[in-house]
């Protein structure tokens, strides 16, 4: 006893010491991690801000580039039509562009000798030449059709610093006629930098690749802070010299003497870079305060652990005396007695209990009840323990114990709570119950299960049906009963005997079990009558009926085979009656069974080997669906499918392509909506040959348009389902269709939906790359409505992304839809994709989309889907209008 106390005392002292050292180390580690995490957060923040600056500058420069192209086109058109520049008209056009982009750039135009002749603040008295500018030399020597961006230059007209973006324009003969320029003053970049929130010691600056300062915020009141001055830290110079695109770095020796974490980013659209920095004293202010609090906490913790250690030593001595008395009593108990704490962990156990679960006592102490109780879940055991601890009742219940070797056995537990050494514990007594449970299980098997097939009998079926009806009424869900009766089974019994008939019934039971879901019930009522109960179907009657119809059809098909019966073989079929139940309260228990029985007899009257619904409307709907499914294959063979084309328009009038939409012209029903037959085609596999026909037809149409002016440049977009795209021969089918028709591959566009991407992304990308190598283009349809990841999106070889009509429909009234449309447009432009908005029906929608940067549309505002002949007439009617309007 004394030795144990001495050991515990040493262990307690060592524990207190180790705990304090651990807390000291943990606090030091936590502070260091917090500092590193904060620095990493700052790096991410400044990197994101530098990226934001890059995107802001790039967005403005795209607008400048578009405007330069427009001015270039006006200049060349004036030279082509008049042989000279119409100064009045061109000045008015340039003035409009200047008003539009006044905060960003000023436009100037030079002649072939470099003299400034048009533009903002340019008059007849202006005598300025750009002939010595490097960009003027480059444009005059090369007609490469690109927009050039200069480094920082000093403006000779405005007398301010800025960056010049320029394009060459040619005369009617294609010779160099001059340069159109847009000067972006440094004040624009200063406004961009000043909009960032970087704390009191932050910095944002922009330099060209010669290290000349373009803008800085906050401004530095020294020569090194002047526009055009060259400078930069050693770290920054090394980064620029390395030619990296983006990098974060720490600077300790700056012009203003402030230590910072910085992010460098080379701009994508001009020869310059930005640096965004955050002052160390700003981002570590909270960390310094937390370090002081940690020191105070550690000193307090040391004092508390010393006091707690002394109290714990007194408790150990008292507990040791109590444990000795309890152990004597437990060792002589005959039942499996064990005492657990509030968490279910064993603190004492009798030898009988240890033998019961097959573990030595040293292992049992400290085990949790969840380690041997196999009858309740962890949550269930927790509820029982909490109930006993909160009351004074004695609870007797049954459960299942698990032995060390994995075997299980039923036990009866008597448990109650009591107070031991000032805490509530549970006293539990377990008794094995080698024989009573086995007898009860045998009685239940006889009462609830069919003796021949082992399936639930009528009694168990009705119990489950009652529970399913109650659940359906509560949740609003539907269930279904399938009453199955074998056709002509009496003849089999009469010819080969009841023994062989029973063997056949066992095989039928096995077949039924394989046709249903795990949660469904297959029961035998008696004789050759079986019932399948389907639970948790859709709350809509039509959807629930379709599931029941599908399973019933599967059963009919599975039973249409030859079974070995005695020494001969017999073909078997069945008649099935179907009814729905649930979804409403008050239905009598056996009513669904009676309805299914009546429907089964209707199937018998219909000639057997059939299925009938009790509800006449459901039967009619099922019949219509069956007729549609049968008619689809015939429609493909008889050429009843046609393609219509809906134009895709850029700006107000220019048709840039069409989307091919399949239609079924039924000889009796007329035009059948794709919403009716496409889902069926997806289910029965017709979508693959139908999709192949669509591609063949689209390629033939492209070939027919190839030699027709105004048609040859059109592209056709074809929707491809995931099932079709993943066919092994899909790539060969597409390339074969192009080869047979002679169509241009660059004019064929494959549209994929987001749902396609969740199937097998790697295989999809591989196939897209193969087709892309042959010239085909790809468009992502319904973007934003599915599951696509941005990480996957940037890997896909796409050319176009479409804004789904669900976002366009309410774009004028729903800010969320407008925000999503804007995000898709910006994302598409960032990834270099064409963005097309679907479902554009009003001028207001088109104008709103134009304002957010989307310039391509598809919808009823421009045209409904048209047949090939009507489309050609539409294109002919659009041609004069397209020629009369300038592109937007």
Automatic annotation (TrEMBL):
Q: Which CDD domains match?
A: EAL, GGDEF, PAS, PDC1_DGC_like, PDC2_DGC_like
Q: What is this protein called?
A: EAL domain-containing protein
Source species, domain of life: Bacteria
Keywords linked to the UniProt accession: Membrane, Transmembrane, Transmembrane helix
Q: Which residues form the PAC domain?
A: 395-445
Q: Does the keyword Transmembrane helix apply?
A: yes
Kindly indicate where the leader peptide sits in this chain: none
Task: List, alphabetically, the SMART domains matched.
Answer: EAL, GGDEF, PAS
Asked whether the keyword Plastid is assigned, the reply is no
In terms of SUPFAM superfamilies, this protein maps to:
EAL domain-like (SSF141868), Nucleotide cyclase (SSF55073), PYP-like sensor domain (PAS domain) (SSF55785)
InterPro entries, sorted? Biofilm_reg_signaling, EAL_dom, EAL_sf, GGDEF_dom, Nucleotide_cyclase, PAS, PAS-assoc_C, PAS-like_dom_sf
Membrane-spanning residues = 6-29, 294-316
Q: Which NCBIfam families match?
A: GGDEF, sensory_box
Q: What is the lineage of its organism?
A: Bacteria, Pseudomonadati, Pseudomonadota, Betaproteobacteria, Rhodocyclales
* Domain GGDEF, chain residue ranges per copy: 477-616
Q: Where does the record place the PAS domain?
A: 322-392
Q: Please list the residue ranges annotated as the EAL domain.
A: 625-879
Tell me the PROSITE patterns matching this sequence: EAL, GGDEF, PAC, PAS
Q: What Pfam family does this protein match (any one)?
A: GGDEF
């Amino acid at each position: 006893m004394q030795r144990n106390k001495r050991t515990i005392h040493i262990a307690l002292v060592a524990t207190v010491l180790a705990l304090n050292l651990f807390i000291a180390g943990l606090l030091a580690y936590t502070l260091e991690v917090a500092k590193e995490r904060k620095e990493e957060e700052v790096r991410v923040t400044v990197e994101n801000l530098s990226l934001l600056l890059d995107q802001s500058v790039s967005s403005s420069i795209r607008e400048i580039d578009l405007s330069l192209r427009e001015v270039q086109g006006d200049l060349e058109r004036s030279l082509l039509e008049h042989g000279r520049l119409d100064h009045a008209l061109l000045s008015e056009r340039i003035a409009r562009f200047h008003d539009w982009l006044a905060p960003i750039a000023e436009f100037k135009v030079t002649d072939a000798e470099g003299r400034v002749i048009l533009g903002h603040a340019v008059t007849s008295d202006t005598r300025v030449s750009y002939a010595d500018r490097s960009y003027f030399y480059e444009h005059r020597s090369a007609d490469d059709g690109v927009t050039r961006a200069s480094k920082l230059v000093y403006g000779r007209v405005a007398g301010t610093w800025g960056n010049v973006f320029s394009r060459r324009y040619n005369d009617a003969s294609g010779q160099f006629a001059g340069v159109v320029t847009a000067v972006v003053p440094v004040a624009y970049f200063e406004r961009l930098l000043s909009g960032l929130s970087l704390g009191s010691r932050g910095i944002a600056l922009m330099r060209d690749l010669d290290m000349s300062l373009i803008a800085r915020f906050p401004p530095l009141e020294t020569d090194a802070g002047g526009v055009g001055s060259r400078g930069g830290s050693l770290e920054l110079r090394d980064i620029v010299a390395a030619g990296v695109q983006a990098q974060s770095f720490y600077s300790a020796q700056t012009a203003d003497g402030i230590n910072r974490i910085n992010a460098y980013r080379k701009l994508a659209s001009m020869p310059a870079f930005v640096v965004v920095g955050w002052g160390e004293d700003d981002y570590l202010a909270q960390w310094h305060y937390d370090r002081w609090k940690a020191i105070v906490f550690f000193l307090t913790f040391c004092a508390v652990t010393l006091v707690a250690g002394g109290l714990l030593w007194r408790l150990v001595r008292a507990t040791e005396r109590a444990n000795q008395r309890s152990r004597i009593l437990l060792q002589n108990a005959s039942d499996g007695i064990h005492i657990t704490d509030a968490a279910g962990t064993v603190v004492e156990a009798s030898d009988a209990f240890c033998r019961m679960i097959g573990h030595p006592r040293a292992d049992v102490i400290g085990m949790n009840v969840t380690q041997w109780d196999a009858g309740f879940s962890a949550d269930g055991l927790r509820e029982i323990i909490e109930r006993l601890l909160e009351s004074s009742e004695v609870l007797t219940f049954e459960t299942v114990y698990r032995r060390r070797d994995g075997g299980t056995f039923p036990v009866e537990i008597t448990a109650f709570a009591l107070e031991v050494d000032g805490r509530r514990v549970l006293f539990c007594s377990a008794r094995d119950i080698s024989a009573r449970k086995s007898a009860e299980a045998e009685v239940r098997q006889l009462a609830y299960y069919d003796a021949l097939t082992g399936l639930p009998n009528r009694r168990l079926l009705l119990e489950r049906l009652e529970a399913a009806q109650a659940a359906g009424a509560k949740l609003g869900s539907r269930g279904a009963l399938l009453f199955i009766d074998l056709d002509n089974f009496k003849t089999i019994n009469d010819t080969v005997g009841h023994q062989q008939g029973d063997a056949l019934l066992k095989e039928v039971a096995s077949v039924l079990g394989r046709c249903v879901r795990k949660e469904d019930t297959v029961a035998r009522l008696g004789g050759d009558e079986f019932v399948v109960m389907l639970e948790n179907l859709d709350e809509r009657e039509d959807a629930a009926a379709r599931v029941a119809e599908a399973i019933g059809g599967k059963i009919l098909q599975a039973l249409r085979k030859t079974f070995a019966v005695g020494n001969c073989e017999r073909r078997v079929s069945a008649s099935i009656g179907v009814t729905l139940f649930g979804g409403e309260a008050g239905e009598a228990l056996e009513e669904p069974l009676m309805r299914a029985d009546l429907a089964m007899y209707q199937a018998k009257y219909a000639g057997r080997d059939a299925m009938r619904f009790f509800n006449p409307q459901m039967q009619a709907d099922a019949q219509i669906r069956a007729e549609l499914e049968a008619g689809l294959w015939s429609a493909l063979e008889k050429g009843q499918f046609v393609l219509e084309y809906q134009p895709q328009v850029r700006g107000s009038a220019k048709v840039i392509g069409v989307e091919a939409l399949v239609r079924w012209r039924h000889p009796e029903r007329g035009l059948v909506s794709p919403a009716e037959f496409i889902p069926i085609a997806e289910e029965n596999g017709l979508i693959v040959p139908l999709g192949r026909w669509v591609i063949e037809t689209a390629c033939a149409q492209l070939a027919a348009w190839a030699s027709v002016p105004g048609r040859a440049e059109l592209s056709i977009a074809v929707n491809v389902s995931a099932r079709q795209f993943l066919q092994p021969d899909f790539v060969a089918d597409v390339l074969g269709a192009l080869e047979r028709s002679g169509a241009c591959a660059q004019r064929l566009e494959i549209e994929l939906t987001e749902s396609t991407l969740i199937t097998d992304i790697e295989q999809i990308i591989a196939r897209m790359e193969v087709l892309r190598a042959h010239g085909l283009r790809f468009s992502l349809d319904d973007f934003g409505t599915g599951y696509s990841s941005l990480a996957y999106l940037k890997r896909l070889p796409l050319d176009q992304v479409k804004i789904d009509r669900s976002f366009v429909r309410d774009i004028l009234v729903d800010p969320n839809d407008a925000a999503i449309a804007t995000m898709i447009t910006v994302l598409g432009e960032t990834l270099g994709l064409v963005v097309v908005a679907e479902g554009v029906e009003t001028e207001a929608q088109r104008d709103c989309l134009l304002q957010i940067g989307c310039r391509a549309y598809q919808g009823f505002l421009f045209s409904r889907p048209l047949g090939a002949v009507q489309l050609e007439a539409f294109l002919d009617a659009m041609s004069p209008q397209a020629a009369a309007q300038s592109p937007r």
